[in-house]
Design a protein that fits this description.
The chain is mainly β and 90 residues long. It is 0% helix and 22% strand. A two-stranded antiparallel sheet has the order 1-2.
Length: 90
């Protein structure tokens, strides 16, 4: 990850239980570290929030999606995300 001055990268993650054995119909709720859709992960060392309430955001869960937000205040500079590694362990 490269974030030149005036740029940033932030993430939200969604983990869900499958519906009828499929992730295509799962309901994904994207959240940040405080468990709301108003917060974002910014530190690459943060761990994803655990929650197993049975609705909304679920972790652990079999279905996973993420969003990456690239921001800049300097239109001659752009942040770069080289890779994103997800370690799944049942």
């Amino acid at each position: 990850m490269s974030t030149p001055a005036g740029t940033s990268i932030k993430f939200q993650f969604a983990v869900a239980d499958p519906v009828n054995g499929s992730c295509s119909n799962a309901t994904f709720v994207f959240t940040g570290p405080d468990g709301t859709s108003e917060s974002y992960y910014t530190d690459t060392e943060d761990e994803i929030l655990l929650d197993d309430t049975g609705s909304g955001y679920e972790n652990p869960g079999r279905c996973f999606k993420y969003k990456v937000f690239f921001e800049t205040t300097d239109y001659s500079a752009t942040p770069i995300l080289n890779d994103l590694i997800v370690n799944y362990s049942p």
